[in-house]
Amino acid sequence: MLEGRDGKATSKAMEILLALGTIYEADRLLPVTSAQISGVSFDNLGNAGLEFLSEMANNGGKARVLTTLNPAGMDVENWQELGIDAAFAVNQQRVIDVYAKMGVIPTCSCTPYLFGNLPHYGEHIAWAESSAVCYANSVLGARTNREGGPSALAAALTGKTPNYGLHLPENRRPTLTVRVQTALTGTRDFGALGVSIGRMIESRQTKAIPYIQGILEASVDELKSFCASLATYGGLALFHIQGITPESTIFPAPEDILTLSRDDIDSAIQSLNEPLLADELDFVSLGCPHLSLNEIARVAEQLKGKRVKKTFWVTTARPTKQIADQMGYTTIIENAGAILAADTCCVVAPIKGRFKGIVTDSAKACYYAASKNNFKVRFLTFNEVIEEALK
Ligand code: F3S
């Protein structure tokens, strides 16, 4: 491949993988069965990124394994309603078309595991998108490093990844026990747990894989919120929860122990909530990570027969939205004046300067709303976010 047997793009992709493998002292390349590519929003990619992708496509790059795509900067079918400008839309569509030309499925979602890109336990994959990486490693027990856009694309075009990091069983051992001494409920609590653990680990300035005890149950929706938060605030790509995640049964709890109380969770919530004037809360968003069908049903139920008073984006994957359309949830949400958008989210859409403050249940969205878009943030529970949209 490196010598150009399969064309220039594959050769370039192999170059990227060999450079990575050399840096991390990988002993060989592993076959992967799926890839998830980040670096899709034109807001982040810009012209240089689009040029690189076009070159790869024009040089014959073709995905060899199931490959899905992260969210883009707009709903590709309904970008006008999100207030996206036409010039941006043209460039964003070019990015998606270039990926599609390479055989990448333009799912434009960060929750590929909810609709068809679902690796099983022990499967080697190459995923970018930190929340999905954390979910795949921890909840599914698949094996991936935290790839960047170019290395995930390189894995897609070659079907390989260097054998290092979290592909090696010995690097998946937990290093720190976290005892959670309080009950957690809902996406905000689990997001706050990610903030607490992430910050604790960051403050120790060593890499750690937490082994979490004391959580008796956690839904898929809560786990995806936790994954997004832990990856954002602690840079983590793997955790184990006793009794819930698959590898928790094969490792003992480490002797280094931290405890977390309700006060820790509450102070994580407090730390994200800025003092805000009522007129500074002009944007409401649910869907970071992309909402599941179950969550969309909850939004529809709470909005039925009502009218929202603020801009309210509910973001999800297009396949999930299609089922929501069939179930009538989309009509209910739209009749209430909210927008059920596919393909994008409140972080990767180009909305800097459009709003003053965001209300969300997502700790990850809080982080990027403040750092990327300069929004003030209010971090509420899922139901409270919907209530806030109605005020
Ligand atoms: Fe997904 Fe966008 Fe959040 S990509 S995890 S919804 S920042």
3D architecture notes:
With 391 residues, the chain is of the alpha/beta class. Helices cover 41% and strands 15% of the residues. It is built from 13 helices and 14 strands. The strands form four sheets. Strands 12-11-10-13-14 form a five-stranded parallel sheet, sandwiched between helices. A four-stranded parallel sheet has the order 8-7-6-9. Strand 6, helix 6 and strand 7 (210-213) form a beta-alpha-beta unit. The model has no long low-confidence stretch (mean pLDDT 97). The structure holds FE3-S4 cluster. FE3-S4 cluster binds next to strand 10 and helix 12.
Question: Tags for this entry?
Answer:
single chain; 391 residues; alpha/beta; 5-stranded parallel beta sheet; 4-stranded parallel beta sheet; 13 helices; 41% helix; 15% strand; binds FE3-S4 cluster
Summarize the structure.
With 391 residues, this protein is α/β, with parallel strands linked by helices. It has helices at residues 8-23, 42-58, 86-101, 130-140, 149-158, 186-204, 220-234, 262-272, 293-303, 318-327, 329-335, 363-371, 382-390, and strands at residues 29-31, 34-37, 66-69, 126-127, 160-162, 176-180, 210-213, 240-241, 257-260, 283-291, 311-316, 339-342, 357-360, 376-379. It has 13 helices and 14 strands.
Ranges where pLDDT stays below 50 over 5 or more residues in a row are none
Q: Within the largest sheet, what's the order of strands?
A: 12-11-10-13-14
The count of β-strands is 14
**Topology pattern, helix = H, strand = E:** HEEHEHEHHEEHEHEEHEHEHHEEHEH
If you compute it from the alpha carbons, what radius of gyration comes out, rounded to the nearest whole angstrom? 21 Å
Fraction in helix: 40-55%
Structural class: alpha/beta
Tell me, briefly, the overall form: globular
User: Assembly state here?
Assistant: single chain
